[in-house]
Amino acid sequence: MDADHIVEVRGLTAGYAGQAVLHDINFRVRRGEIFMILGGSGSGKSTLLKNMIGLYPAMSGEVFIGGDDIVGARGAAREKILRKFGVMYQGGALFGSMSLEGNVALPLEEWTRLPAAARALLARLKLQQVGLDGFAGYLPSEISGGMQKRAAVARAMALDPALLFLDEPSSGLDPVTSAELDELIRSLSRNLGITFVIASHELSSIFAIADRVIMLDGGGIVAEGDPRELRDRPTNDYVRAFFHHGKERAAA
After folding, report:
1. What's the Rg (C-alpha) of the chain?
2. What is the pLDDT, as a whole number, of residue 139?
3. Buried/exposed 20-51: b ≥16 CB within 10 Å, e otherwise
């Protein structure tokens, strides 16, 4: 894998209970870009993402993160790879009994030997970076859904990774809050140089922030490139329907 790319997926086949959902997936993610994985419900977006972060074991293939294959890694080698990236799970997955500061400090507690005061300071700094300055002591139930998503991004950033994986970050958000989250992602990418890999089906977010996308259907990649190019010059009927379904429903 060359220095211009931070992620490379080679020949990945993935599924559950011996049943493949994705077959022979191949693509690369450039450093600093916002890369989105698209597809309809059941297309395998979340399955692909969870295999890329090592949450599920791949049936075959390789996933290189910064040059190291997470699929084959074990023990200390695997832990080294896991520290290279952060993850925001669908819904945020914050611990309800812990403050936002406590949630963000969890990776620091697990992966570093920093004293408690230093972990707390870093957690507050991360919350500040996502626009939650002053909310460190709040519980997740005491803030809005959009703020919970921001706190989950802050937790994913706790160890200063160069790479973040986000699973359906706009899910459950109203259009205004979703647009604000998109702007945060774009700002973090532009100002901090973070690479984002995002699973999504939200058209507004795709066009607002994606530099490049892949589209999944039928267990494989059916399109790859700039989402605006794919929208304006679709390569097949599925791609055309995905990007133009809103117009088609309005005309029906």
Report:
1. 18
2. 96
3. ebbbebebbbeebbbbbbbbeeebbbbbbbbb
Residue with tokens 């700039």: 226
Separation between Cα atoms, residue 59 and residue 211, nearest integer Å: 29
Query: In this predicted model, what pLDDT tens digit does every residue of 209-249 receive, in sequence order?
Result: 999 999 999 999 999 999 999 999 998 899 999 988 744 43
What is the signed CA dihedral for 164, 53, 45, 168, rounded to 10 degrees? -40
Distance CA(120)–CA(140), nearest Å, equals 17
226-236: pLDDT as tens digits: 999 999 999 88
* 104 residue type, one letter: V
Q: Cβ distance 186 to 208 under 8 Å?
A: yes
244 class by beta-carbon count within 10 Å (0-12 exposed, 13-18 middle, 19+ buried): middle
CA proximity to 236, closest of 224, 219, 248: 224
**For residue 236, what are the CA distances in angstroms to 204, 228, 230, 240?**
21, 15, 9, 6
Those residues whose C-beta lies under 8 Å from the C-beta of residue 109, and which sit 6 or more positions away, are 119
Mean pLDDT, the chain, whole residue set: 92
Predicted confidence at residue 1, as pLDDT, reads 66
